[in-house]
Design brief:
A: 7-stranded mixed sheet, 0% helix, 51% strand, B: 6-stranded mixed sheet, 5-stranded antiparallel sheet, globular
């Protein structure tokens, strides 16, 4: 049972570089989300998607892009990395708005130098 | 607006009960959740409660919900060193999970 798979687990970027964090789920879930976790701030929602072809902004969307061309995949793109984007990123999926559980990936630890 | 608040730290002795508190602002939340995060890992759902319930018990875990005060608590009975982790409460609003800052529980032997 793969669940939610995030790659890579660790990444170091230089300021100004771009990259894509990958997220895939094999549970046919409609809802997928990206969060960032910073000390003392909990998890903050970056972007989310309620189904293929539909995305929306969360609390902290600036500097990030997403797309949802398939149900399974929800990549997060950093357009021009900044040190303020150093964080741990989590992808989550859930069956739908009334689903009782969100399943989380193991996280991607990103450092921007 | 959406806001979920938790205290940041809690320290207890092994065998004692732990009570982690949370306040939220969205009175229309249908579900309220407790997640556990162990070091270096993702979040795992511990338990949840429907908004029309006052209490839910699941083995060593008891969730209390006071809708009037918008207050949620998680009680862990007979706390063990393996319970040391960060505990997040969360509310679901229009399909989005809104998390508190997380409470770091430290269990001393």
């Amino acid at each position: 049972n793969a669940g939610v798979t995030q790659t890579p687990k660790f990444q170091v970027l230089k300021t100004g570089q771009s990259m894509t964090l990958q997220c895939a789920q094999d549970m046919n879930h409609e809802y997928m989300s990206w969060y960032r976790q910073d000390p003392g701030m909990g998890l903050r929602l970056i972007h989310y998607s309620v189904g293929a072809g539909i995305t929306d902004q969360g609390e902290v969307p600036n500097g990030y892009n997403v797309s949802r061309s398939t149900t399974e995949d929800f990549p997060l793109r950093l357009l021009s990395a900044a040190p303020s984007q150093t964080s741990v990123y989590f992808c989550a999926s859930s069956p739908g708005p009334q689903g009782t559980e969100a399943f989380f990936g193991q996280g991607t630890r990103l450092t921007v130098v | 607006g959406e806001d979920v608040e938790q205290s940041l730290f809690l320290s207890v002795r092994e065998g004692d009960s732990s009570v982690i508190n949370c306040t939220y602002t969205d009175s229309s939340s249908t579900y309220l959740y407790w997640y556990k995060q162990e070091p270096g890992a993702g979040l795992q759902l511990l338990t949840y409660i429907f908004s029309n319930m006052d209490m839910k018990q699941d083995q060593r875990l008891t969730v209390l919900l006071n809708k009037k005060d918008k207050h949620l608590s998680l009680r862990i009975a007979d706390t063990q060193t393996g319970d040391s982790a960060i505990y997040f409460c969360a509310e679901k609003e229009r399909g989005k999970l809104i998390f508190g800052q997380g409470t770091e529980l430290s269990v001393k032997p």
